[in-house]
Design a protein that fits this description.
By secondary structure, this protein is of the alpha/beta class. It folds into six domains: 3-351, Purple Acid Phosphatase, chain A, domain 2; 366-600, 3-Layer(aba) Sandwich (Rossmann fold); 605-674; 685-833, no CATH class; 854-915, no CATH class; 925-1154, paralog of FGE (formylglycine-generating enzyme) (Alpha-Beta Complex), CATH 3.90.1580.10. It is 39% helix and 15% strand. A hairpin with a 7-residue loop joins strand 5 and strand 6 (183-187). It is globular and about 110 Å long. It starts with a strand and ends in a 6-residue tail after the last strand.
Length: 1155
């Protein structure tokens, strides 16, 4: 049974011409009632914009009255008819346009988008959709949205399923009326940019993200197998910019997605059927204006009033009845539009019945899903042998049992403000169609993608979840009322190797390359039907792409090809979810493709404890989360003490892979070594030892295997001409080991390469260090194993400056691909040769960067500190002359914190140098400089701290018992909150301690106030949080909106979202952005608590009781956009809030400086 609609557009309630409106009303009613007699009452009334004339409340009241009359006229003919469902989208006359001053000040970004600035468009897209911040445009549609809420929404409730987007005016409505087929309608606000002539003709457009946001979580746009689909918006494509037209056709209205697109705006009635490049056609239906001005625009072009009816069948046929107001028999009335064929009885066949879809072979994906499930269902941990866990040899653990929830930094709404907080990584899956997961080595990126693949495969294979419901809902937070997407998991290192292989057929680097590569993987179907089935799934949005390891695509040329594939897939398959994982790498390119970037946080203490509990449960068989007794209880207690009780080990445990290694070593040896390199050494040694018996029987030795693994690892790190690779050929590995094999086994008489290949295959089967990914394709169990073993091989080389380890290390000290290996190298070098060899490394670094150039000094200081920092657990001290040279370099490098010095060194060089200085002991904070760091603020009675309070400074408060002494917690209910919330240190304190000269964050207003009391008692003067007016005075120059003046923010002036740093930075790193009196980091980096109450915010007594009073914070942060850097910008949060981008600075009486 078909759906019938009444299509009205451009009603213009409130426009001039009351007399003609009355006349049109009189003509419209009898014609409408005659059509109701022919077609029956409409199921819905489609309203394609310009419902009001100037977006005023009284105009929508008039609209309500008209619609009430309209439905009354219908019921006069069909008294028992159901109320028609109103289905509107806003038009340009529905927004409340700002005045000219506001247009200049507040909407400059929209003007830049209208003028074709794609970078600004991308920034707005991030703002509107990644951060869901639509404050710029929401007020324009406030009246329309109120009307929608009280007039339209109640009519949808109970009539179908719907989702209202956070973007004003956008929605998705799914109708499934009794006795009907499903019908889905999508409405998009295409009028949000139409603020005036400068924003209008050939300058408008839609964001692709509007479509995704309108659909809501887990909705896809299926065509052949799903409901009929109609798209509604307001202006025709001729009003879009050329790029917006292309995006609309490629990313929003693809031929297989919607049956038709309906719109209005031009006060004319027209249909267009366009098939491009021989493809399937798109169907466009433009409605005339029911009411409004008869002469349009400056040209006073004639417009005739009209309206239409339409009907869509289950087969996708669409018939329309188009009418215009014209003269007939000497009278004005509504008549058939002569542009169209057909008549009032049969209608005009707008969209004919599609040809039946040809029968395609049935494809069973279950064998492939079983293979994927087998590859991802377990976490494999080898080398668990005797020792503390005598008799245990468990290698495979169900992934859902051992997986510990990963946290990531993301934007969330709360307490009336938008802020960066930690969220479960899985919670982001339903929110984002494009997700870029960034994490350090071993952070759990691949494990998370394995979890996603395995849980979806379990559901699709029909495996019951023991806790009830679906696997995907329990472990991934996905709505199990929706069909499970089919996971397509691909390793990007494998894709890159395949693309670079000269045997790979030469084709365009588009989305189909993913299908080509898929068919080369294990258990993939090789026939056309299998491939075409996958293509249909992807076209219909029924799959999820899980793409792992972008950072493992080292070759720049191949990487660009991979990005081209991503871009094409993202535009041509917009309904599928695409998740890409990587180390910090490629973020700019992916965010430019509208990928939402999220960063995996290191494990906090609670996550470490959860992992240890899960580890114990896997070994001892007790319930996850339970507190076991006996041997299991003792194991947990000693393991927690060994890991969390020592700061150096606790630091390693923040990384899931390293935590796993720590657990293995502790299980086997009963204790833990100190230092990252010694942990890896212990893991590799136990992995080798666990297979020594099999290795000996096969004719190999542990020493040979260790040296051979190290040789392969160093070879795969690449030389100056070849980039690092994570996946490599068996033959490459054999060649790398051939000479070593000859030295260890000189008596071998058979073809040596054949013998080496046999050894490689043996180790892939048994070692847990090397594994085969597909036929003759190899990788190390984890990339960090490769990086450690490469460092080990370097340390075995001679100290000769021309041919030894230095010839390799020298040109890789600052290489992103070599960073882990370089950081691990000093520890391995120490274990292989003692202090002398580390001294030699430091000497050569000092010699490599000669001269007094500040940029060189900053780089040199940073590299030297990278070498020295991990050596502290070895109690290593360089010899005096090296220490003296290092100190001189360090002193010179401090110039990066001055305006003159920073101007000579870009932030990309200043940042690692400053981080290294912090870890080595930033001289700015090693002495008692507190009085010098207070700067008086003219026009106030205070002296304000030069910097936000740093981690290093706050650490003294923690260590001095600041959280245990109620005397410091003097604010109302401060001590009560401290006890209730169980605060003992700032949030994620162990991770913050790794960065001593960054501003402390994750502290509530109460903690900041307690610190001030403690500091005052220690220094003998009064300290307090500044009032916001005093803070603003310090941040406001004589001219300009920013602390530095009038210049717009840049990444050289402050740390904000466009800096792409995504974490706090060491304080004082942006001296060019200092305030007028010399204060650093007043804007950007971190928000700062003030003493001021947010008095203009309505809050409930219940919230104040629960969260404390709302307090103002100022300054913006690394997480926020440039607009938040204005000195006058304010935000607020309840006093109990602890936020990852919120810190504080102290103030004192101005007289303190002169004491």
């Amino acid at each position: 049974m078909a759906y019938t609609w009444l299509h009205l557009s451009d009603i213009h309630m409130g426009c001039r011409g009351k007399e003609i409106r009355k006349q049109v009303d009189a003509e419209f009613k009898p014609h409408l009632q005659g059509m109701v007699q022919r077609l029956g009452a409409p199921d819905m009334i489609l309203l394609t914009g310009d419902l009001a004339f100037s977006g005023k409340e009284e105009e929508y009241k008039q609209l309500d009255a008209f619609l009430a009359d309209l439905t009354g006229w219908i019921r006069e003919v069909e008294p028992d008819a159901s109320q028609p469902i109103l289905v509107p989208v806003p038009g340009n006359h529905d927004l409340a346009r700002p005045d000219k001053d506001d247009l200049v000040l507040d909407f400059a970004n929209l003007k830049q988008v209208a003028d074709g600035d794609e970078s600004v468009r991308h920034g707005l897209g991030q703002r509107f959709f990644s951060k869901k911040n639509v404050q710029l445009i929401a007020p324009l549609f406030h009246t329309y949205q109120d009307w929608f809420a009280h007039t339209v929404k109640p009519g949808w409730e109970g009539r179908g399923d719907f989702h209202l987007s956070h973007f004003p005016g956008d929605w998705c409505l799914e109708l499934n009326l009794p006795g009907r087929f499903p019908l889905r309608l999508v409405g998009l606000n295409s009028a949000w940019m139409h603020l005036g002539d400068d924003f209008a003709h050939q300058k408008m457009g839609l964001f692709t993200q509007q479509l995704h946001a309108a659909l809501g979580e887990n909705r896809t746009l299926e065509f052949a197998q799903g409901p009929a689909l109609l798209l509604l918006h307001h202006p025709p494509l001729t009003w879009f910019s050329p790029k917006a037209i292309t995006r609309f056709k490629e990313e929003i209205y693809t031929p297989k997605r919607f049956h038709a697109c309906l719109f209005g705006h031009m006060h004319d009635e027209n249909t267009t059927v366009i098939g491009e490049a021989g493809g399937l056609p798109r169907y466009y239906l433009q409605a005339p204006s029911l009411f409004g001005v008869e002469k349009l625009g400056t040209s006073q072009e004639e417009r005739r009033f009209g309206y239409g009816w339409g009907r869509v069948t289950e087969e996708g046929e669409i018939f329309i009845w188009p009418f215009l107001r014209g003269e007939h028999g000497g009278e004005q009335q509504f008549i058939w539009n002569p542009k169209f064929s057909g008549d009032v009885e049969t209608g005009h066949p707008f969209r004919t019945k599609m040809q039946a879809v040809s029968t395609v072979p049935t494809v069973d994906l279950k064998p492939w899903l079983r293979s994927l499930h087998d590859r991802t269902r377990y976490i494999k941990i080898s080398g668990i042998g005797s020792g503390g866990g005598s008799g245990k040899n468990a290698n495979l653990y169900p992934i859902e049992q051992l997986y510990t929830v990963l946290k990531s930094r993301d934007g969330v709404e709360g307490g009336g403000s938008f802020r960066a907080e930690d969220v479960n990584l899985a919670d982001l899956l339903p929110r984002h169609k494009r997700l870029f997961i960034e994490g350090q080595p071993g952070a759990g990126k691949t494990t998370f993608l394995y979890l996603a693949a395995a849980m979806l495969a379990k559901d699709l294979l029909g495996e019951a979840c023991p806790q009830g419901g679906s696997w995907r809902n329990r472990h991934l937070g996905m709505d199990d009322r929706r069909e499970a997407p089919i996971p397509l998991f691909l390793k990007l290192s494998g894709l890159a190797a395949w693309l670079a292989d000269p045997r790979t057929p030469k084709k365009a680097d588009d989305r189909f390359r993913l299908l080509d590569f898929l068919q080369t993987t294990a258990d993939a179907g090789k026939d056309d039907a299998w491939r075409e089935h996958w293509q249909r799934l992807l076209d219909a949005g029924r799959a999820i792409l899980l793409l792992d390891g972008l950072d493992e695509v080292a070759d720049e040329t191949v990487r660009e090809r991979v990005f081209a594939i991503f871009q094409n897939a993202a535009t041509q398959w917009p309904e599928i979810t695409i998740i890409v994982s990587s180390r910090p790498f490629g973020a700019d390119t992916l965010t430019a493709m509208d990928f939402h970037r999220t960063v995996i946080e290191p494990f906090a203490a609670a996550q470490v404890r959860e992992f240890i509990n899960r580890w114990s449960a896997a070994l001892h068989g007790h319930a996850i989360g339970a507190q076991p007794i006996g041997e299991a209880g003792k194991h947990i207690e000693t393991l927690e003490k060994a890991i969390l009780g020592k700061p150096t080990i606790r630091k390693l445990a923040s990384n899931p892979v390293m935590l796993t290694c720590l657990c293995v070593v502790h299980w086997n040896e009963g204790h833990l070594p100190e230092g990252r390199t010694r942990v890896y050494r212990g893991v590799i040694r136990w992995l080798l030892g666990s297979r020594e018996e099999q290795r000996t029987k096969a004719g190999y030795t542990n020493r040979f295997s260790l040296e051979a693994f190290s040789a392969i690892a160093l070879t795969m790190m690449g030389d100056q001409k070849v980039d690092k690779r994570a996946i490599f050929d068996l033959e490459e590995a054999a060649v790398a080991v051939e000479l070593l094999h000859e030295r260890h086994f000189p008596k071998v008489t058979t073809n040596r390469l054949i013998s080496v290949r046999e050894w490689v295959r043996f180790e892939c089967l048994y070692s847990g260090i090397l594994e085969e990914t597909s036929r003759n394709r190899l990788r190390f169990w984890h990339l960090t194993f490769q990086e450690y073993l490469a460092a080990q091989n370097l340390a075995w080389l001679s100290d000769d400056q021309g041919n030894g380890w230095w010839s390799i290390v020298e040109n890789r000290l600052e290489s992103a691909q070599w960073r882990e290996t370089v950081d691990l190298f000093p520890g391995v070098l120490f274990d292989e040769g003692g202090r002398r060899r580390v001294d030699e490394l430091l000497t050569r670094v000092l010699e490599k960067y000669p001269g007094d150039d500040l940029a060189q000094d900053a780089r040199k200081a940073g590299i030297l500190e990278r070498i020295l920092e991990p050596m502290r657990v070895y109690e290593y001290q360089p010899k005096p002359e090296i220490q003296e040279q290092y100190q001189e370099v360090l002193n010179r490098a401090m110039a990066i914190f001055t305006p003159k010095g920073a101007a000579k060194v870009p932030i990309a060089v200043r940042l690692p140098a400053a981080e290294a200085l912090g870890q080595g002991g930033d001289p700015r904070f090693t002495g008692d400089h507190w009085r010098e760091d207070l700067i008086t603020v003219p026009g106030t009675a205070i002296a304000l701290g030069k910097y936000p309070v740093t981690v290093q400074e706050y650490q003294r408060f923690v260590e001095d018992g600041g959280y245990d002494n109620p005397d410091y917690w003097q604010e109302d209910r401060a001590w009560t909150f401290r006890q209730t919330e169980k605060w003992q240190e700032p949030d994620k304190w162990a991770n913050q301690l790794d960065h001593p000269n960054r501003p402390v964050v994750g502290v509530s207003w109460y903690e900041a106030a307690a610190y001030c009391v403690w500091l005052g008692r220690n220094k003998g003067v009064e300290f307090f949080l500044p009032e916001e007016k005093d803070w603003e005075t310090a941040a406001t120059p004589a001219q300009g909106a920013y602390p530095w003046g009038q210049e717009d923010p840049t990444p050289e002036l402050a740390n904000y979202d466009e800096s792409k740093i995504s974490v706090p930075t060491p304080v004082g790193l942006y001296p060019a952005g200092n305030g007028p009196y010399g204060h650093c980091d007043l804007v950007g980096n971190v928000w700062e608590w003030s003493a001021s109450l947010k008095v203009d915010l309505k809050v409930s007594d219940q919230d104040v009781q629960k969260f404390g009073p709302p307090k103002v914070f100022r300054g913006g942060s690394w997480f926020r956009a440039a607009g938040y850097l204005r000195a006058a910008r304010r935000s607020r949060g309840y006093a109990v809030y602890r936020i990852v981008d919120l810190g504080f600075r102290v103030a004192a009486p101005a007289s303190t400086v002169d004491l």
